[in-house]
Amino acid sequence: MKHARSAALIQLGLIQSAGTPDPAVNLRKTLARVEQAARAGAQIVCTQELFRSPYFCQSEDHACFALAETIPGPSTDAFRKLARKHRVVIIASLFEKRAAGLYHNTAAVIDANGALLGLYRKMHIPDDPLYYEKFYFTPGDLGFRAWQTRYAKIGVLICWDQWYPEAARLTALQGVEILFYPTAIGWHPSEKARFGAEQHQAWELIQRSHAVANGCFVAVTNRVGIERPAGGDGIEFWGQSFVAGTAGQLLAKASPSREENLLVPVDLRQVEITRNHWPFLRDRRIDAYHGLTQRWIDA
Questions:
Q1: What global pTM score does this model have?
Q2: Per-domain boundaries in the chain
Q3: Quick one: which of 127, 169, 253, 293 has the fewest CB in 10 Å?
Q4: In terms of CATH architecture, what is 9-293?
Q5: What is the tens place of the pLDDT at every residue in 167-212?
Protein backbone atom coordinates (compact mmCIF):
# COMPACT_ATOMS: atom_id res chain seq x y z
CA MET A 1 0.00 0.00 0.00
CA LYS A 2 1.34 3.43 -0.93
CA HIS A 3 1.05 6.32 1.48
CA ALA A 4 0.17 9.85 0.48
CA ARG A 5 2.44 12.29 2.27
CA SER A 6 0.55 15.11 3.97
CA ALA A 7 3.47 17.54 4.24
CA ALA A 8 7.19 17.84 3.58
CA LEU A 9 7.82 19.32 7.04
CA ILE A 10 7.60 16.64 9.72
CA GLN A 11 8.74 16.35 13.32
CA LEU A 12 10.98 13.64 14.73
CA GLY A 13 10.99 12.55 18.37
CA LEU A 14 14.00 10.86 20.00
CA ILE A 15 13.42 9.30 23.42
CA GLN A 16 16.65 9.57 25.42
CA SER A 17 16.31 7.85 28.78
CA ALA A 18 18.07 5.88 31.51
CA GLY A 19 17.34 2.22 32.08
CA THR A 20 16.11 0.78 35.39
CA PRO A 21 16.46 -2.87 36.49
CA ASP A 22 12.71 -3.45 36.00
CA PRO A 23 11.59 -4.14 32.39
CA ALA A 24 7.95 -3.36 33.21
CA VAL A 25 8.92 0.04 34.60
CA ASN A 26 11.06 0.79 31.55
CA LEU A 27 8.24 -0.15 29.20
CA ARG A 28 5.68 2.00 31.03
CA LYS A 29 8.09 4.92 31.15
CA THR A 30 8.95 4.66 27.47
CA LEU A 31 5.32 4.34 26.42
CA ALA A 32 4.49 7.44 28.46
CA ARG A 33 7.34 9.40 26.93
CA VAL A 34 6.45 8.33 23.39
CA GLU A 35 2.91 9.48 24.06
CA GLN A 36 4.24 12.75 25.45
CA ALA A 37 6.33 13.27 22.31
CA ALA A 38 3.35 12.48 20.08
CA ARG A 39 1.16 14.98 21.95
CA ALA A 40 3.90 17.56 21.43
CA GLY A 41 3.74 17.00 17.67
CA ALA A 42 6.26 14.24 16.96
CA GLN A 43 5.23 12.13 13.95
CA ILE A 44 8.09 9.60 13.92
CA VAL A 45 9.44 8.52 17.32
CA CYS A 46 12.47 6.34 18.02
CA THR A 47 13.49 4.68 21.28
CA GLN A 48 17.05 4.05 22.40
CA GLU A 49 18.60 0.62 21.92
CA LEU A 50 17.21 -2.14 24.20
CA PHE A 51 15.17 0.35 26.23
CA ARG A 52 13.33 -2.33 28.26
CA SER A 53 16.32 -3.17 30.47
CA PRO A 54 19.70 -1.99 31.61
CA TYR A 55 22.40 -2.65 29.04
CA PHE A 56 22.85 -6.26 30.13
CA CYS A 57 25.63 -7.06 27.64
CA GLN A 58 28.21 -5.84 30.16
CA SER A 59 28.56 -9.49 31.20
CA GLU A 60 27.87 -12.96 29.80
CA ASP A 61 24.97 -14.18 31.91
CA HIS A 62 22.51 -16.84 30.75
CA ALA A 63 19.88 -15.40 33.09
CA CYS A 64 19.64 -12.34 30.85
CA PHE A 65 18.01 -14.37 28.07
CA ALA A 66 14.85 -14.16 30.17
CA LEU A 67 14.68 -10.47 29.21
CA ALA A 68 13.94 -11.36 25.57
CA GLU A 69 10.43 -11.38 24.09
CA THR A 70 8.76 -12.48 20.91
CA ILE A 71 7.81 -10.12 18.11
CA PRO A 72 4.86 -9.70 17.85
CA GLY A 73 4.64 -9.69 21.62
CA PRO A 74 3.70 -7.55 24.62
CA SER A 75 5.86 -4.55 23.74
CA THR A 76 4.92 -4.36 20.07
CA ASP A 77 1.25 -4.80 21.01
CA ALA A 78 1.48 -1.80 23.34
CA PHE A 79 3.32 0.35 20.80
CA ARG A 80 0.91 -0.56 18.01
CA LYS A 81 -2.00 0.59 20.15
CA LEU A 82 -0.20 3.84 20.92
CA ALA A 83 0.66 4.39 17.26
CA ARG A 84 -2.99 4.03 16.25
CA LYS A 85 -4.16 6.33 19.01
CA HIS A 86 -1.81 9.18 18.13
CA ARG A 87 -1.19 8.45 14.43
CA VAL A 88 2.55 8.28 15.09
CA VAL A 89 5.23 6.09 13.54
CA ILE A 90 7.27 4.25 16.21
CA ILE A 91 10.67 2.56 16.03
CA ALA A 92 11.04 0.29 19.07
CA SER A 93 14.36 -1.41 19.86
CA LEU A 94 13.83 -4.84 21.45
CA PHE A 95 15.64 -8.00 22.56
CA GLU A 96 13.91 -10.51 20.29
CA LYS A 97 13.42 -14.16 21.18
CA ARG A 98 13.02 -15.92 17.87
CA ALA A 99 13.41 -19.42 19.33
CA ALA A 100 15.23 -21.09 22.20
CA GLY A 101 18.90 -20.42 21.60
CA LEU A 102 18.17 -17.91 18.81
CA TYR A 103 17.98 -14.24 19.77
CA HIS A 104 18.36 -10.95 17.93
CA ASN A 105 18.87 -7.27 18.67
CA THR A 106 15.86 -6.04 16.72
CA ALA A 107 14.03 -2.85 15.82
CA ALA A 108 10.30 -3.07 15.17
CA VAL A 109 8.91 -0.49 12.74
CA ILE A 110 5.28 0.42 13.40
CA ASP A 111 3.31 2.68 11.08
CA ALA A 112 0.92 5.44 12.12
CA ASN A 113 -2.09 3.14 11.68
CA GLY A 114 -0.63 0.60 14.11
CA ALA A 115 0.56 -1.83 11.45
CA LEU A 116 3.80 -3.66 12.15
CA LEU A 117 5.63 -2.87 8.92
CA GLY A 118 8.59 -5.10 9.62
CA LEU A 119 11.77 -5.75 11.53
CA TYR A 120 15.41 -4.84 11.25
CA ARG A 121 17.80 -7.23 12.98
CA LYS A 122 21.17 -5.78 13.92
CA MET A 123 23.75 -6.93 11.38
CA HIS A 124 27.06 -5.98 13.00
CA ILE A 125 27.51 -7.52 16.46
CA PRO A 126 30.38 -6.23 18.65
CA ASP A 127 32.48 -8.08 21.17
CA ASP A 128 34.43 -5.61 23.28
CA PRO A 129 34.99 -5.12 27.02
CA LEU A 130 31.51 -4.58 28.58
CA TYR A 131 29.91 -4.95 25.12
CA TYR A 132 29.67 -8.75 24.95
CA GLU A 133 26.91 -8.82 22.38
CA LYS A 134 28.08 -11.89 20.48
CA PHE A 135 27.12 -13.97 23.53
CA TYR A 136 23.49 -12.84 23.17
CA PHE A 137 22.70 -11.87 19.59
CA THR A 138 22.64 -13.78 16.33
CA PRO A 139 23.67 -11.48 13.44
CA GLY A 140 20.72 -10.16 11.48
CA ASP A 141 19.43 -12.19 8.54
CA LEU A 142 16.90 -9.76 7.04
CA GLY A 143 19.42 -7.53 5.32
CA PHE A 144 19.32 -3.75 5.13
CA ARG A 145 15.77 -2.53 4.79
CA ALA A 146 13.60 0.52 4.13
CA TRP A 147 9.95 1.23 4.84
CA GLN A 148 7.54 3.76 3.41
CA THR A 149 5.70 5.05 6.46
CA ARG A 150 2.86 7.55 6.51
CA TYR A 151 5.27 10.45 6.91
CA ALA A 152 8.58 9.46 5.30
CA LYS A 153 10.59 6.62 3.85
CA ILE A 154 12.87 5.45 6.64
CA GLY A 155 15.63 2.98 7.32
CA VAL A 156 16.84 1.66 10.67
CA LEU A 157 20.29 0.51 11.73
CA ILE A 158 21.36 -0.26 15.31
CA CYS A 159 24.33 1.02 17.32
CA TRP A 160 27.46 -0.84 16.12
CA ASP A 161 26.01 -0.65 12.60
CA GLN A 162 26.61 3.10 12.77
CA TRP A 163 30.35 2.71 12.16
CA TYR A 164 29.86 1.02 8.78
CA PRO A 165 29.37 3.20 5.69
CA GLU A 166 28.33 0.09 3.75
CA ALA A 167 25.27 -0.33 5.97
CA ALA A 168 24.22 3.29 5.58
CA ARG A 169 24.77 3.20 1.82
CA LEU A 170 22.86 -0.01 1.18
CA THR A 171 19.95 1.32 3.23
CA ALA A 172 20.03 4.73 1.56
CA LEU A 173 20.09 3.15 -1.91
CA GLN A 174 16.51 2.03 -1.24
CA GLY A 175 15.41 5.64 -1.25
CA VAL A 176 15.32 6.40 2.46
CA GLU A 177 14.93 9.99 3.57
CA ILE A 178 15.80 9.41 7.23
CA LEU A 179 18.21 6.91 8.78
CA PHE A 180 17.48 6.07 12.43
CA TYR A 181 20.07 4.63 14.81
CA PRO A 182 18.81 3.34 18.19
CA THR A 183 21.98 3.28 20.26
CA ALA A 184 23.61 2.32 23.57
CA ILE A 185 27.11 3.77 23.70
CA GLY A 186 29.15 5.41 26.40
CA TRP A 187 32.45 5.70 28.18
CA HIS A 188 34.33 3.31 30.39
CA PRO A 189 34.64 5.70 33.36
CA SER A 190 38.34 4.92 33.81
CA GLU A 191 39.05 5.93 30.20
CA LYS A 192 36.84 9.01 29.95
CA ALA A 193 39.42 11.61 30.96
CA ARG A 194 41.99 10.39 28.44
CA PHE A 195 39.89 9.19 25.51
CA GLY A 196 36.35 10.45 26.12
CA ALA A 197 36.33 13.53 23.92
CA GLU A 198 37.84 11.85 20.87
CA GLN A 199 35.60 8.78 21.26
CA HIS A 200 32.46 10.89 21.27
CA GLN A 201 33.69 13.08 18.42
CA ALA A 202 34.41 10.03 16.26
CA TRP A 203 30.95 8.58 16.98
CA GLU A 204 29.18 11.78 16.03
CA LEU A 205 31.41 12.44 13.02
CA ILE A 206 30.92 9.03 11.38
CA GLN A 207 27.15 9.34 11.56
CA ARG A 208 27.07 12.91 10.30
CA SER A 209 29.22 11.67 7.41
CA HIS A 210 26.50 9.13 6.53
CA ALA A 211 24.11 12.06 6.14
CA VAL A 212 26.55 13.82 3.80
CA ALA A 213 27.44 10.76 1.72
CA ASN A 214 23.81 9.74 1.24
CA GLY A 215 22.01 13.09 1.21
CA CYS A 216 19.58 12.07 3.94
CA PHE A 217 18.70 12.95 7.53
CA VAL A 218 20.30 10.91 10.32
CA ALA A 219 18.57 10.57 13.70
CA VAL A 220 20.41 8.94 16.61
CA THR A 221 18.83 8.00 19.95
CA ASN A 222 21.26 7.11 22.77
CA ARG A 223 20.95 5.99 26.38
CA VAL A 224 21.99 8.21 29.28
CA GLY A 225 23.22 7.61 32.83
CA ILE A 226 25.65 5.20 34.50
CA GLU A 227 24.66 1.52 34.51
CA ARG A 228 26.42 -1.21 36.50
CA PRO A 229 24.31 -4.38 36.08
CA ALA A 230 27.46 -6.52 36.32
CA GLY A 231 29.11 -4.49 39.08
CA GLY A 232 32.40 -2.67 38.68
CA ASP A 233 32.64 0.76 37.12
CA GLY A 234 29.95 0.03 34.53
CA ILE A 235 29.35 2.26 31.52
CA GLU A 236 28.58 5.97 31.54
CA PHE A 237 26.26 6.38 28.56
CA TRP A 238 26.95 9.71 26.95
CA GLY A 239 23.46 10.62 25.74
CA GLN A 240 23.76 13.44 23.22
CA SER A 241 21.12 12.02 20.91
CA PHE A 242 21.05 14.14 17.78
CA VAL A 243 19.62 14.79 14.35
CA ALA A 244 21.88 15.67 11.41
CA GLY A 245 20.67 17.40 8.27
CA THR A 246 21.31 16.30 4.72
CA ALA A 247 24.61 18.19 4.62
CA GLY A 248 25.70 16.64 7.92
CA GLN A 249 24.93 19.75 9.93
CA LEU A 250 23.76 19.32 13.52
CA LEU A 251 20.11 20.33 13.71
CA ALA A 252 19.65 19.50 17.39
CA LYS A 253 21.42 17.61 20.18
CA ALA A 254 20.23 16.34 23.55
CA SER A 255 21.95 16.61 26.91
CA PRO A 256 24.91 14.35 27.85
CA SER A 257 23.40 13.62 31.26
CA ARG A 258 19.60 14.13 31.32
CA GLU A 259 16.61 12.14 30.17
CA GLU A 260 14.68 14.09 27.57
CA ASN A 261 12.52 13.96 24.47
CA LEU A 262 14.36 15.61 21.61
CA LEU A 263 11.83 17.01 19.13
CA VAL A 264 13.27 18.10 15.79
CA PRO A 265 11.45 19.38 12.68
CA VAL A 266 12.91 18.29 9.34
CA ASP A 267 12.00 19.34 5.81
CA LEU A 268 12.03 16.27 3.57
CA ARG A 269 12.34 18.44 0.46
CA GLN A 270 15.99 18.91 1.44
CA VAL A 271 16.71 15.29 0.53
CA GLU A 272 16.03 15.81 -3.17
CA ILE A 273 17.66 19.24 -3.18
CA THR A 274 20.84 17.89 -1.61
CA ARG A 275 21.02 14.81 -3.84
CA ASN A 276 20.54 16.95 -6.94
CA HIS A 277 23.28 19.39 -5.94
CA TRP A 278 25.69 16.76 -4.60
CA PRO A 279 25.04 13.84 -7.00
CA PHE A 280 27.16 11.25 -5.22
CA LEU A 281 24.68 8.53 -6.12
CA ARG A 282 24.97 9.41 -9.81
CA ASP A 283 28.76 9.27 -9.81
CA ARG A 284 29.24 6.00 -7.96
CA ARG A 285 31.53 3.58 -9.86
CA ILE A 286 29.45 0.48 -9.29
CA ASP A 287 31.58 -1.38 -11.84
CA ALA A 288 34.66 -0.97 -9.62
CA TYR A 289 33.40 -1.85 -6.14
CA HIS A 290 33.61 -5.65 -6.25
CA GLY A 291 36.40 -5.60 -3.68
CA LEU A 292 33.95 -4.49 -0.99
CA THR A 293 32.66 -8.03 -0.74
CA GLN A 294 36.11 -9.30 0.27
CA ARG A 295 37.36 -9.37 3.87
CA TRP A 296 40.73 -7.95 2.86
CA ILE A 297 42.61 -7.24 -0.35
CA ASP A 298 46.20 -8.43 -0.35
CA ALA A 299 48.40 -6.06 -2.30
A1: 0.96
A2: 9-293
A3: 293
A4: 4-Layer Sandwich (3.60)
A5: 999 999 999 999 999 999 999 999 999 999 999 999 999 999 999 9
